[in-house]
Every structure is written in C-alpha cells, then in structure tokens.
Amino acid sequence: MINHTVRTHRSAEEFPYEEHLAHKIARVAADPVEVPEETKEMIINRIIDNAAVSVASALRRPVTSARVMAQARPATTGGASVFGLPGKYAAEWAALANGTAVRELDFHDTFLAAEYSHPGDNIPPILAAAQQSGKGGRELIRGLATGYEIQVDLVRGICLHEHKIDHVAHLGPSAAAGIGTLLDLDVDTIYQAVGQALHTTTATRQSRKGLISSWKAFAPAFAGKMAIEAVDRAMRGEGAPAPIWEGEDGVIAWLLSGPDHEYTVPLPGEGEGKRAILDTYTKEHSAEYQSQAPIDLARRMGERLATDGRDLRDVESIVLHTSHHTHYVIGTGSNDPQKFDPAASRETLDHSIMYIFAVALEDRAWHHERSYAPERANRPETIELWRKICTVEDPEWTRRYHSTDPDEKAFGARAVITFRDGTVVEDELAVADAHPLGARPFAREQYIAKFRTLAEGIVPQAEQDRFLAAAENTENLSDLSELNIELGEDVLAKAPTIPGGLF
C-alpha cells in the first residue's frame, strides 16, 4: 500500500491533476491486476449476505416504496433486475431499490476506522451497472473488489463524522470507481466520475441524528444511484469539479478539517491486489455495528444472571464503558431523548445501545423483527430497565477502536451492572461473536445459514437453492440476472400499500 498525503491546494498553486486524489483512485480502478482468490471468495460471501438482508426487508415500507419507484421506470434497453421482481428496469433506479433493501435493516457488512461504512452498499449499484452493460461475473467481481478497496481506503484515511458529514460521501466515489473497473474505462473517465459522485453525495449526518427516518436506508442507495449517473455523464465526456477533495473551495477546505489539514489515504500500488474486503466484517444481529458485541455480551450476562437467580427488576444501574463513537453516536453522549422513547422509530431504536442492551439482557436473544416490535419496546419492565442504562467513554476502548492492529482493534464494551443490594456484576467483550476474531467467526457456512434463516417462509426452497448455486458460481456467470431473487405474487401482496407519487 502507498500512503498518499491529501491537503488543500490554492487555485494559483501548481497542482497537476495526476496528483489529485481522484486521479490516484482512478488509476487504482483502471489497474488490470487480477483479483486475489481470497477476495473473490469474500465477495461471494457478501453477495449472499446482501441477498439475505434484502429478503428480510422486502416487505417493509421504505423498501416497498423504492421498489414501486423502480417499477415506474421499466428499461427500454438493457436494464437491471429489481430484487423480488421479474423483468428489467432502469439501472439507476434498480440500484436505488436494491440499495434500500440492503440497508433497511442495518444488517449487512461494516468497516470502521477513521470513518465508518457499510461497504456492501457498493454491490447494488455495481451489479446494476453490470446488468445494464451485459457484463459477466468476472467483470462484476473485479468491479466489486475496487468498490470495496476504495471505500475502505477512504474510511481509513478521512474522517467525515467529526464534521457531521454522512459517511455515504465515501460511497459515491467508491461505487463510481468500481463501475469504472467493471466497464474497463480509462483513467480520465473514471477520474471525472469519481469527482462527480463525491460532489453529488455529500450530505449532513442529520439523517442519523434525533428521530431517525427511513432516509437512513435511502441515503446509501441514493449515493449508488448518483454513482451510476456520474459514470454515465463522464462516459459522455462531461467533467467534474476539480480538484474535488483538494480544491480551494473543495471538500477538505470547507466540509472537513480545513485548508491547513493533511489527510493520509492508503491506496494499492500498481499491480497490487485489492484485498480491503478481507478487513471488513458482517453482522449476526440487525443493529448498528457497535451494538454487535454488546448484544452478545448482554446475552451472555443475561444467562449468567438467570443462572444465579438474579431478578432484573432489582437492577439499580447499568453503565456501559465503551468507545467515543459508541458513546456519542448510539449512547447517552448523543443527548438524544428519542433514544429512550418507546414510541421511537425502528431506525432510532437500532441506534440506541441502551434499548438494545436492555432487550438483549432480558431476552438473552436478538431478532431483527421481534426485538423492535412496538409491543416489545413498550413493555413496562423493559422501559424501566432501559432508563437505568447509560454509557461513558473509556479512553482505552476509544484507543482500541482506532487501533490499526487487527488483533487489538475492538468495538465492544465493559458492562457494570449494580443491584440494589450493592452486588456488582461486570463483564466485557471486545468483538462480536461473528467477528473474524470472535467466538463464532462467519465463514461461507454461516453466510448461507443466515440467508436460509432470513429467507424461510419468503423464498421457496427451490429458489433459495438456485440463487445460492448462482452466487457461488458468480465468476462464471454470463447472465447476472441469475443473482436476482424473484418473490411470488402472494409474498409481494403482503407488502404495505404505498401512496401514489409523481410517477
């Protein structure tokens, strides 16, 4: 990997465009290097993972809305598949629909470093572009390897959230770069597409603050849609604001740390294989990633307390000692009263570690639907326990969160449960059970099991088998519509009725 220094340059300063970060990203995307076998295998895992969570979310209102919007744009030429439907639709709208399905339940892969991300968000737009252009599985894998690589590398080097910029600002450029690799575009075209994609996908983090709405699911899907449109424009010869990151009025100068700040972004050197996907991790539980280890910790502690005959109604307080991010984004450091509101949206509850820990402690389990059900959130004893929980930032957990040593990096917490009689029960967990270093790391078997579990009762067994066989054979596919899953009319009929829009 080569570390690149990225900073603001004045307009009058000599700054060759070959030195622009967007150009360096474009060169990585255009590099004809082969995809490592380990990367190929993990890409297949994530294709299966995305399909699993899309099945689970297919009948939810935001996903239904996105699907209906795509249905209003049938393809006239080419086209891409919309998850759950037969036929072909405009690729950018298929990407929006599929991206919304993937993100709705907050249940797919993650990478956390200077910034946070869900790199699996690259799959819907790159797959849609591949279907639109008639590409095969080999080209798709190459494109996805680039999408993951660029997003992970940007996340390693550039923090967005400290400036309240949403993390999808790294997704637009990564998806555009991935599509550039997929289509074997030249460096200059990819450079323009990356710049356009970044320019059109910078937004504030209010989408993940306060009363969180369905836009949380639409935001990355919209970034993927913008990436497809950016590539289309760039292929037609249209340019982008430049230098997009380093310009005097660019992203660093005005949206991030300002003209005096330097960032360091690592990128593969020429001929170096793209392996970033191997540093990412998926979710066993449908919740914000920083909740994964605390859910497993709460389940473990719940079992212990039950064995000891402890009654959770006797709890005086629960303090979660954790990282800066967990405390300020999904903990009490956020100062969001909605995180204690039983009537809050599902999107808000899955960003409340206090709610999540309380339910997982009581139930000694976690479910993507039952754990968020209104009747579950309004259970009186749960509300009482929930409001006894707080988080505090622990510098050691923050340090481990930012560690570059994979054996030390952690996203967990130490829980201190104090009972009214003065008894204190403590335990901690650094990484989730499903993490590569966890108690039950996810491998192909676990990805398939996750898909089977979420598809049960929604996707017929024969269709499950067909999809899994196609996914595991991705590299050899000539028809990428095989990676779509069609749902029966009886299943789709259970989706909510959506009010009419403009189209």
UniProtKB/TrEMBL annotation:
InterPro entries: 2-Methylcitrate_Dehydratase, MmgE/PrpD_sf, MmgE/PrpD_sf_1, MmgE/PrpD_sf_2, MmgE_PrpD, MmgE_PrpD_C, MmgE_PrpD_N. Residues 19-263 form the MmgE/PrpD N-terminal domain. It is an enzyme of class 4 (lyase). One of its GO terms (molecular function) is 2-methylcitrate dehydratase activity. Residues 285-475 form the MmgE/PrpD C-terminal domain. It comes from the Bacteria. It catalyses: (2S,3S)-2-methylcitrate = 2-methyl-cis-aconitate + H2O; citrate = D-threo-isocitrate. It holds the Pfam family MmgE_PrpD_N. GO terms for biological process: propionate metabolic process; tricarboxylic acid cycle. Monomer. Belongs to the PrpD family. This is Aconitate hydratase. It comes from Corynebacterium marinum DSM 44953. The lineage of its organism: Bacteria, Bacillati, Actinomycetota, Actinomycetes, Mycobacteriales. The gene is prpD2.
